[in-house]
Amino acid sequence: MPARHEPGGGTALAAPRRPPAPAAPHGAGDAMRRSLACLILLLAAPPALAGPAEEARRLYAAFVAAQNAHDLGAVRALLAADRFLWVSNGLSVWGRDPAIARMMSYHAAETWRIDPVEARAVAVEASPGAAYLHVPLLLRVGPRAAPARYRILVSALCAETPEGWRIAALFTTDANPEGWPGDPVE
């Protein structure tokens, strides 16, 4: 091994030089790099998530929890940023900020509680990135001692966006008493 001079006057043995690796056939390195890149992407990708119908149920459950916690900031975050629509008994409210402003008036009551009837909720996949969720619910709103009770039908269009799954539209209406046998929530 050849000697190498070190700073400070000492000498050290230099590591033996390795011969260069034989060249890969033309294009073989590119194919290997592409395969390795694909493998890394597959391993780094998030696991497969639930389908659109399950995502709609999960999203709406988070929406209800935020409503019942009176956390309108969390509610706002669950609404689509681009062209959110809320239609309530014939009134169209466009945009998540106007929707939150309208919700604030309802949340001013002492009592505001949403109880979905999960057993009667139906989620329908509309496309790989969207689903409708139709769910009846009982809304309690008003003074704590005697809140009014409303039976409401909600259809939510839930869509996958760059920010994740969001509610793109809500359609709410009073439930027809004939279509709601008994009182499912007590």
Automatic annotation (TrEMBL):
Domain DUF4440: 57-167
Coiled coil: none
Region described as Disordered: spans on this chain: 1-28
Top-level taxon in the UniProt lineage: Bacteria
Listed InterPro entries: DUF4440, NTF2-like_dom_sf
Alphabetized SUPFAM superfamilies for the sequence: NTF2-like (SSF54427)
Gene3D superfamilies in UniProt: 3.10.450.50
Signal peptide (from-to): none
Pfam families: DUF4440
Protein name: DUF4440 domain-containing protein
Source species: Paracraurococcus ruber
Highest classification ranks of the organism: Bacteria, Pseudomonadati, Pseudomonadota, Alphaproteobacteria, Acetobacterales
